[in-house]
Amino acid sequence: MVHSTDLSLNAADIKTLKERARALKARLERLERRVSSIQAPGMPGIRIAMVDGDLCAGCGRCSDVCPVRAIELKGKTARVDAARCRGCGLCVDACPQGAVSMQALRMHGKIPKQATG
Ligand code: SF4
Ligand code: SF4
Question: How crowded is residue 62: how many other Cβ atoms within 10 Å of its Cβ?
Answer without folding.
Answer: 26
